[in-house]
Amino acid sequence: MDRQQYENYLKEKLHPILEKMLIDCLQAKPADPIPFLIQWLQNKQCGGAAHAQSAQAPLQQKAQAPANQDKKKKKSKKESDEEKASSDEDEDDYVEVVQTHKEKGKPAVGRASVSAEAFGQFNQKKAFKPKIIQKKPEQIQKITQRLSQAFMFSALDDGQRKIVIDAMDEKRYKAGELVIQQGEDGDVLYVVDEGELDCEKVFKKGDKATYLKTYQPGESFGELSLLYNAPRAASIRAKTNAILYSLDRDTFNNIVKDAAAKKREFYESFLQTVELLKDMDNYERSKIGDALKSITFKKGSYVVKEGDSGDDFFMIEEGQLQALKQVNPGQDPVVVKEYKQGDYFGELALLKNCPRQASIKCVTDVKLATLDRSAFKRLLGPVDTILGRNADNYKKFQK
Questions:
Q1: N or C: which end of the chain has fewer CB within 10 A?
Q2: Angle at 61 between CA 59 and CA 65, to 5 degrees
Q3: Which residues does residue 314 pair with via DSSP β-bridges, in sequence order?
Q4: pLDDT at residue 126, rounded to an integer
């Protein structure tokens, strides 16, 4: 079988099955996807597409039941203030349009991970040459702002962000104009700069399209086709006049996806050293790794100040910091600890809302990874549930 025959087999035989399976799994969001996928394939084998479609609802209920039961067990009065805080989180960083049936009363969807496209003998990775599309300074400023709002681009460093900005191309659409057609091949993703766009999907041939969501400025769509070489999973139409910035497949694969993979690997390894979180499993660490955000501080600035309330946990990616504590009233604070790359602080903020025990000052320019308590809880539930797996560990941090 030559290369073209392999590519035809992938496109005609495997992609239709894998795309539908991934879409159903993303919509169901099972706590453990493997049993769900096995059951999905068994349904497909027994009854074909129609049977698999009809079985989707019970599969979703079965997949979500353990999660719902866990959430009921985790509820307590002392968590009510944390739940209120979590409502202010921006939870709309979706990986694709297929994840968007928002139902009232359901918890917000967690951020999705960036996956990989397979390369091998019949799909070899080519040498990457950055694309440069000339832009005005105001366009660069607008793109930079939009990228900072999109979770997908959070792993980029300054150099990678510049390559992505250079490669982005401005696209303008009038109200009612089609941007993406369901079923077509896709080789770009879009970031919304201005306007609103509606997403619709036809779930069964011959049925009317179902409205899924409206995309707002700062959101992105279309990456699923780049990740999986799959046809567009839904249609996107401009609701108002809209300005978008498109990013091509090569830049996405070589810059955005690779940066996300390196970031995840680094954070997962890092999280294993955090004593408070040592009882997490690999899956939980990967979810936290994807949710961490990078922030920078200049030399001499304070990250936190003693006595302030806080719910953020920090890990040091680059730079050095000092912990300063007011020992005697009226005297200058003293240095009680030095921090360097690989250290962390503020981990107790994930557990409870207590004042900062010391001020943290930057000795050099620093880059930190941060996660707040409400984001942690949204992804994995209360931290004391994880601590509870190890009774001694739990008692130590509760003191």
A1: C
A2: 120
A3: 345, 370
A4: 61
d(CA 100, CA 113): 15
- Is residue 223 a known part of a binding site? yes
Among left, alpha and beta (phi > 0; psi -120 to 50; other), residue 130 is beta
Whole-model pTM over 0.70 = no
Dig out the tokens for 311 from the structure: 């719910």
- Are 361 and 316 spatial neighbours (Cβ–Cβ below 8 Å)? no
Hey, what are 143's tokens? 């793109």
Q: Tens digit of pLDDT for each residue in 175-213?
A: 999 999 999 888 898 999 999 999 999 998 888 999 999
For tokens 């619709």, name the residue.
200
Running DSSP on this structure, what letter comes out for residue 239? S
The backbone region for 92, taken as left when phi is positive above 0, alpha when psi lies in -120 to 50, beta otherwise, is alpha
3-state helix, strand, coil in the chain (%, to 5): 45, 20, 35
Q: Is residue 237 a known part of a binding site?
A: no
Which domains are seen in the chain, by residue range? 3-74 (no CATH), 77-264 (2.60.120.10), 272-398 (2.60.120.10)
| Distance from C-alpha of 169 to C-alpha of 190, rounded to nearest angstrom | 9
> What would the two tokens of residue 335 be?
């240095």
H-type helices in the chain, by residue range? 3-9, 15-28, 33-74, 80-86, 137-149, 158-167, 223-228, 249-251, 258-271, 282-291, 373-380, 383-387, 391-398
Q: Is 389 annotated as a binding residue?
A: no
Determine whether the annotation assigns residue 232 to a binding site.
yes
- Measure the CA–CA gap between 239 and 222, rounded to whole angstroms: 17
Question: Average of pLDDT values for 302-322?
Answer: 89
Give the Cα separation of 101 and 90 in Å (integer). 17
Tokens 């896709």: give the residue.
Answer: 186
The Cα–Cα gap between 243 and 84 comes to 35
Determine the residue type at 255.
I
The DSSP 8-state label assigned to residue 164 in this structure reads H
